[in-house]
Design brief:
- 2 copies of one chain form a homodimer.
- Chain A has 19 helices and 18 strands.
- Chain A is of the alpha/beta class.
- An 8-stranded parallel barrel of chain A has the order 7-10-11-12-13-14-15-16. A 6-stranded mixed sheet of chain A has the order 2-1-3-5-4-6.
- In chain A, helix 1 packs parallel to helix 3, helix 8 packs across helix 9 and helix 13 packs across helix 14.
- The termini of chain A are far apart.
- The mean pLDDT of chain A is about 95.
- The interface between A and B is medium-sized, with 22 and 22 residues.
């Protein structure tokens, strides 16, 4: 295999994020790093080779030789091996292919001729690619040593990114510039950023990307037509080289808008025929097309409800069309009444996904997977885990997270979300008794799902650093790593990311580790308290605005009055939402005595004088946490200041600028929230701090 | 004088508003309405003739003859006479020209040869035009009778409309479509609407129109350059025929943005020279150009503060440039700190205009006039009268009102503003003792101002009915009539408008009269209570949103807590704002005992249990007024329903549609405001009505 100029990396001058391949003197002169041999010819192994050549060149200062070695006789090499029946016996024996899933890999030190080779082997080119990125990580973090014996299989089959990119170039809930895919209602012509993007996400194991917004507007509806399919196929081609299947979000009303039919009824034979033909057309352009992502009957999007059909009817029709080609339908469960009357306290948006979908268990085709947001509301800084996880034994499920920080500071605030995601993944649903954590359900380990996994709304745009806030790169990295292996600890992921991104300086590590570890709870502490959520401005969702959604149609209320606040979601005398959980969780949430403090106001309406498990009253907790939150940001700034000179000036300054914005806005949050509740409750802060 | 096809009315197919000239059988066969003679040759008298021919033709069903009559010998005619030294002695004696101001007129019945002529005479063509519109009103309302002896002079010299139109076609705070002047950053090519607009506003005596937004953006800055001046001159030509002087809003930073200077310092000789040259250029295109309207140092607009100069320095520099041509500078006093900290209760936006301008009294040139908003804040449904009126004996002042319903229902709600304006005009400032009403000050009767009068932000756009809500036409009509004569009663203006617009049906009159008369107080009753204002959504200013501006930079707060609400603006222990009034008013406002109920929360922070003069507590007043307000709208709908068949179906349906919107939104206002204060105060409604 010979690389050419198209394999020259990187493709763009954007920030390399964690693929920096900084010069690493400890790697110089290691004989086995001087030569690479390749067994296999897939596009993915070619990408692996290109990455390895580039990375090793950057790190060691010399270009490794790529040798032809059909019989596996070279010694002291890095050997990239994709399984093939024709592989020499010796190589087949070296790699335990029988233990590998389709996307898994092994990395092994193999003593040979008095030296040592490194074997990176996978059943598929994707496996080799993932193994290569793993090897490069080891080199960068200084963990490359003799005697490597690594075998990895991904825990989740689907490891997806959802882009909310529009073809005009805007990104819904994007805080890092414009789309890398679209501009002015066309695909971008310069694909360098798309190529580097594919490298970035493949390096953390992402294997599916939906490139357009789930709210599919007029132009985007045409992505599945001849007008745009050649462009889509080009991007799919880039993705393919990195093992990524391309998905499209589709408009449920396409048969009407594109097909000229008068209906999109999923049981109408013309509609079914239209989608089948459409699938054939798409697969004609993209043989390995991933499938559709669908937001239907949600927030004014069309869907099967128009025709008195169920979500099962709707999704099965699409699934039927995609099935012959191996495509899947990712059907979002974010369905609720978005024209609620704020006066009505019986309707509870939190109940909606479960109420809509649970009764349909068993009615979905095998190539439909339900994509369920981590919580029952909408990506708040704190909410309980969706009770739908584990509630549908016979229906494929996957989890949806949000990397883009819509409600968590919009990449102006530092908010490392891995701790939040870990809490969700480790949440025990008790679906099949103790130990039925969400991570097992969405990995298809609890029930034998045909398709399952994790998806996330991504936070990248065309900003030079991809994510707006440089440190928000950690969220992108962390999501990919957790999707690969949800058992990875927060600490391990954080350590990897810091060392790859900022090098090995111990002080840098300590400061960043502490900032990242604290940031989510710091953000929570100065924003909306105790699980109640929202308190942001309508539309753009940046805060603070305590009553921003209080008298609205969105079903997102805090019900604060002069005595207390919170939403009563109990079975006893509330909306009955707690009954959607398995008994162990239901009982814990049902009583304010056992409900965790951080979720108290999500489940209960309590007086401001209610005493938390912490020993503080609710109102004093609000005051204290809001002062502490601001102090937390002040501490971030002080610690970050201490890194001046230890980090390149550009990134140091960029982060510092964001931290200063965060501090100003944290103070605003603190004062608005404290003042709001002081004015409403009339209860003084015990410590007499300034409240207005 | 012979009319040609360019004098054919109307110019457009837009709603004729009050210039309907409905067929009126009582006018048929009156001999003196069969012939018109003209003495004078001005453009304005030509417009008067065209209007009279059109109106009389429509009303009588036959085209009147236009006769040449140089010696004034025709009898039994309508005689339009513009004063001229060469007029025949007989005509000069008939009209008391010595009692007329430049814009005044007489309408007289003159017995002649056994018949009767009608004389419409003015010192100027404008006078004749205004007299002609008056005569046409008499014909339409059925008040044309023998023995007419009318003499009218306008009370206010300046009777202006301010358009907030942008050249992209949008209208800031416009609720009736797009601009009639601009589209896509050019002037509109079809001028029919502009011509009919000129007729409409001239018919109620408007003599000055600023065509562009006081927030002068990039394109509009170029209105005073050769790029647009020929277009401006064309519009000025249309206006001229109706006696209207065209004004432009200008960008204070023009010498920098257009002139390439590095400063706009009003004391810099290059800046002064630039403006002088610019004035010469403008007057080269438009010899009777009215002058500039300027919003400087306000809401991020540039101004003299940048150079440590005063508003007197800034306006005088422009005045100096315009003076040789008779132009004036209309300098807005809407200057305040729009980046206030909501935590700071000492800064008071209400004080700003007085604090900024009062110390400068006597420093302004004679062709500068300060334009002062009716209240100290910003066109709220209720606020006190600006204390700046009457506070500057040596500085020209005029009043600014808002016809467009920014804070009063945005032409979705019926809100007839004549009653509000009457209260302002009749407000006694006590500036020179009892009887120094605002109307006398702005008419230049209290102090001998060289320029003064009334301006208003207009409510028209390119909607077919001009004003969005058909009944909002009454506000446009009413403002013009009040600017002509502020002593006209609300009842008289309303009666005129109804009869001109909807004819003589007594039931129509009674219903409309009552709806218009009640509408402002009804709107007030279901929106923000007791003079506190705001409670709207930021940006678009449509409500309800009680805390919409509470934690903002705009200086517009209600300070509601669990005990009470309101802004303490007293001298005793508040912001000291009351001291800006003359003692009689200051004392009345200073004490909650004497402060009028409807302004209580503007001046005082009181407990919800404070008892009003009405005998109700503040909180019970809030509840009661909000329920009553909605009932008021329900009553409007019922009454309007009763007019079905008595009004053309199109207008009936249009108004009904708006009333239904108003009802839905009034209910939202009621429930949000009541719920907000119930939750905050914890005090139950005495009548146990639904509050949430």
């Amino acid at each position: 295999m010979t690389l050419d100029k198209n394999d020259k990396l990187p493709y763009s001058d954007a920030d390399p994020c964690w693929l920096r391949y900084t010069k690493n003197e400890s790697l110089e002169g290691i004989p086995r790093l001087a030569k690479i041999t390749v067994h296999g010819s897939s596009e993915q192994i070619r990408s692996a080779l290109a990455e390895l050549v580039y990375g090793m060149t950057e790190m060691t200062g010399s270009v490794p030789e790529t040798a032809e070695d059909p019989n596996g006789l070279e010694a002291n090499v890095v050997r990239l091996v994709q399984f093939d029946e024709a592989l020499p016996e010796r190589l087949r024996e070296l790699a335990p292919f029988h233990d590998l899933h389709e996307e898994g890999y092994v990395i092994r030190s193999v003593p040979e001729n008095g030296g040592e080779s490194i074997l990176v082997a996978g059943k598929s080119g994707k496996g080799v690619l993932y193994g290569t990125f793993h090897l490069l990580r080891l080199m960068q973090t200084g963990d490359l040593r003799s005697g490597l014996q690594i075998l990895e299989n991904p825990r989740n089959g689907l490891r997806m990114m959802n882009h909310w990119d529009n073809m005009d170039g805007s990104i819904e809930r994007g805080y890092a510039g414009q789309s890398i895919f679209f501009k002015d209602n066309e695909f971008v012509r310069d694909q360098a950023r798309i190529r580097d993007y594919a490298r970035l996400v493949a390096s953390v194991g992402i294997n599916g990307v939906a490139i357009n917004n789930v709210n599919v507007h007029k132009t985007e509806t045409q992505l599945i037509t001849s007008r745009f399919l050649p462009d889509v196929a080009e991007v799919a081609g880039i993705f393919r080289r990195y093992g990524i299947a391309l998905f499209l979000s589709v408009n449920y009303a396409s048969p009407i808008e594109l097909g000229g039919l008068d209906t999109a009824d999923p049981l109408d034979s013309r509609v079914r025929a239209w989608w089948k033909e459409k699938a054939a057309e798409i697969y004609g352009h993209i043989p390995d097309f991933g499938g559709f992502v669908v937001k239907a009957d949600s927030e004014h999007r069309p869907g099967p409800f128009t025709y008195n059909r169920t979500h099962a009817d709707g999704s099965n029709m699409l699934a039927e069309a995609l099935a012959p080609y191996g495509g899947i339908v990712v059907w979002r469960c974010f369905v609720y009444n978005c024209l609620q009357d704020w006066r009505d306290r019986t309707t509870d948006r939190a109940r909606a996904a479960y109420d809509h979908f649970k009764p349909l268990d068993g009615q979905f085709k095998q190539n439909v997977v339900l994509q369920i947001k981590n919580g029952p509301m909408d990506f708040q800084v704190r909410e309980p885990v969706s009770p739908l996880f584990g509630a549908m034994p016979e229906t494929n499920q996957m989890a949806e997270f949000q990397i883009t920080q819509e409600y968590t500071g919009q990449q102006k605030h530092l908010c490392y979300l891995v701790p939040q995601w870990k809490e969700v993944l480790d949440f025990d649903t008790f679906a099949r008794g103790k130990g039925t954590e969400v991570k097992k359900i969405v990995a298809g380990e609890t029930y034998p799902y045909a398709h399952s996994g994790m998806a996330a709304v991504i936070n990248v745009g065309d900003d030079p650093n991809w994510t707006g806030h440089t440190l928000a790169q950690a969220n992108l990295y962390g999501f990919g790593r957790l999707a690969w292996n949800p058992d990875l600890s927060e600490e391990a992921i954080t350590a990897e990311w810091i060392r790859l991104t900022f090098g090995k300086d111990e002080k840098v590590y300590q400061v960043l580790r502490s900032m990242l570890a604290e940031s989510w709870r710091v953000y929570e502490s100065y924003t909306s308290p105790l699980g109640i959520g929202w308190m942001v401005n309508p539309g753009h969702h940046y805060g603070p605005n305590v009553d921003g959604y209080e008298y609205s149609v969105w079903g997102t209320y805090h019900y604060a009055d002069c005595r207390g606040m919170g939403v009563n979601r109990t079975v006893k005398d509330g909306t009955g939402y707690t009954a959607q959980y398995y008994p162990e969780n239901m009982e814990r949430y049902e009583s304010p005595e056992t409900c965790p403090d951080e979720l108290l106001l999500f489940f209960h309406h309590v007086p401001y004088t209610h005493t938390l498990h912490s020993g503080k009253t609710v109102i004093q907790h609000i005051y204290d946490s809001h002062f502490e939150g601001v102090e937390g940001v002040e501490a971030f700034i002080e610690r970050w200041q201490g890194l001046e000179g230890r980090i390149d000036a550009k990134r140091h300054a960029q982060v510092m600028e964001r931290l200063r914005i965060q501090l100003a806005h944290a103070r605003e949050w603190r004062d608005v929230v404290n003042t709001y509740f002081f004015r409403k409750s009339g209860i003084e802060d015990r410590h007499g701090r300034p409240i207005y």
